[in-house]
Amino acid sequence: MDVLTLSRIQFGATVAFHYIYPPLSIGLGVLLVCMEGLWLKTRKPVYHQMARFWTKVFALTFAIGVATGIVMEFEFGTNWATYSRFVGDVFGSALAAEGIFAFFLESGFLAVLLFGWDRVSRKVHFFSTCMVCLGAHFSAIWIVVANSWMQTPVGYQIVTHNGVARAEVTNFWEVVFNPSMVERLFHTVCGAWQAGAFLVVSVSAWYLLKQRHLDFARASLRVGLSVALTASLLQLVSGHTSAQGVAKNQPEKLAAFEGLYTTSSNAPLTLIGWVDEKNEKVNGLQLPGMLSFLAFNNTRATVTGLDAYAPEDRPPVQASFLFFHGMVGVGFTMIAIAALGFLYFRHGSLHERRWLLWILVFSVLGPQIANQLGWFAAEVGRQPWIVYHLMRTPAGLSAVVKANVVLSSLILFTFIYFLLFAVFIYLLNDKIQHGPDEQDLTPSGKLALPDELLHHKKT
Amino acid sequence: MNFDLNTIWFILVGVLLTGYAILDGFDLGIGALHLFTRDDQERRVLLNSIGPVWDGNEVWLVTGGGALFAAFPNVYATVFSGFYLALMLLLASLIFRAVAIEFRSKQPMHWWRQMWDVGFSVGSVLSALLLGVALGNIAWGIPIDDHGEFAGTFLGLLKPYPVLVGITTVALFMMHGAIYGTMKTEGALHDKLRRWAMNCIIFFVICAVTLTMATLLFVPHMSARVRENPWLFSIALLNMLSIANIPREFHHARDSRAFLSSCAAIITLMALFAVDIFPNLVYSLPNPENSLTIYNAASSSKTLGIMLVIACIGVPVVIAYTVCIYWIFRGKVKLDRMSY
Questions:
Q1: What is the complex's ipTM, to 2 decimals?
Q2: pLDDT tens, A351-398?
Q3: Can you tell me the distance from the alpha carbon of A67 to that of A195, in angstroms, rounded to the nearest whole number?
Q4: What is the pTM for the complete model shown?
Q5: Residue A458: other Cβ atoms inside 10 A
Q6: Contact assignment for A169 to B302 by CB distance below 8 Å
Q7: A7, A54, A95, best to mutate vs chain B, most B CBs in 10 Å
């Protein structure tokens, strides 16, 4: 294999593996804020127990997220040096801002969240939990800013120094609020909330099935299902606006998502099917006019097809189509699962329906699969460009790195990632089997005393 | 020297990397010393002395990398693609030591803990060594062609001088880590760490003296500026005084002052390095005219200006809550059920 293919596989593998963890940190962050908030509000010990238990799971995902995240930041320089020279002026700022505004906040207050239970007051601890959650979201903001600029670059000019062209910032806020940023951020964050919420739902459903930790499981389900349903419904909205954005900003990407070869009004939406790339058509179940309607709110609107682009400017169609439709399919399934679970939980009969509990146990995989497919669709659909309509992917490679070197690092990291994943699953399973601590029903340290008493003691 | 944006960013990247060396330096040092005690309880105390802070410390490297990318993209591109294998090894080491901290005490089995202990220690030593070797290469000079691309090989990076810088870095971080450890421990382990700290000081001083001689003899451009501006020699003097002060503070049982001295030693070393490479960021050998400087490798002044605003907002806030968090976790390590 050549250095281009190897570098793309390596970056894809690194990002895909990394992206198992940050959505969990973002999503669990929100749930931790809910749980600890409920504890402060209601003073029910079970919420304290929940916050403690899920904090431990959070710590596990966070550590691997940090460790694998550093790799990506370095890979821009190691494998994509020419790209880095070209966009450093624009793209680098977003990464640096992520470090300063997000990572410091997250990792700093994580210390208090994990180890501060007995050292600080309830309010300071809750504040730290909120800051960790906020930091995780800041990180999402800046990385989506950077990636969206690659999808819809604005706010720059091309300047040539010593015969080498590069993009330089002309308007920072245009770069930040580039045309696709807001809707993609919304979509990404909802996906992360789903990932965190369904993890909580899954583990709690399993406890109900096994008749363990029942109070804990019910309380966790209440929080988990509420967030899961809210996020899944919001995802419907954000998915729709993102797709409309793609239709407007990157027409060939939408055409590839839907396998639309001919520019047409009344363009059809494929519900299920596959692309016949040779004959340039889609086989499957189609709704006429629906794509025009979804993309432009009008069944007669014209949707640009791949025929408007030269073959070398088109994204890989089959892959984009399957990733995109896979994501949409899983997305709708998650709404159905969350709604069913929520309804039966409210009805008080969820624990009797073992089939649904089993579905909930496996529901944790749904958002993970959809998040991966969605990012694959977004990035494969941007091809052949590394920066949309500005730089082609092969042009971004490092000039001095050889294929055998990339192969060795690829083998090294594949080995490391498999090992990390195995250990992660082993330890996660161990925590789940062990379950919440009975000790945590009686808060200790400074947390044990209500705030009024604590102040009273001081005076 | 005029204080333009490029110079300010040279200093800021330097500050970030110095912050990293001071903070993650003691983490890596604790890691390097980890296997010297065989007692599980003592190993846990050592791990938990850095437990709440290690990942925050590592963020200094991530942010330093981000700042380098944003401010000097050509340096980022040339060095990272040129040092490809070395960086991949550094990343693998950093990953192993990070997850080892998290995983180690999650299971009681002896083989499990021993495995992650070795991962933690080897990862820490290798990280320090590779960072030092990279710095050593920047000081010695690396071959750069007239397109600004690295023109050397991986084995070419392992010349004696950079390796010596690498070993000195390990020694420095071990000393720094041992001194940090004395602040966080009590009883037998505390006395043990003091003994280790004294041995590490000797190890470091031997390395530092050898390195200084090697630099004066073989790397003349790394002392040119001090030769022209003799007052800068005071930095070197301050460095030696800080080191000499450490045993004195130990003698008076003032562990935290010893730690501050050790921080001062790191700051002065980084300052000496910065003073001598300025205005180059990467010195090109054998063609010095191809060196990457703070001007030919920089982003546009517009971006440097925007980034400066971001830094002025962000850095004070970061420093404020970092100090708060170190304050919350001050004092000796007590193991409880939340500990590693």
A1: 0.85
A2: 888 899 999 999 999 999 999 999 999 999 998 999 999 899 998 998
A3: 20
A4: 0.89
A5: 6
A6: yes
A7: A95
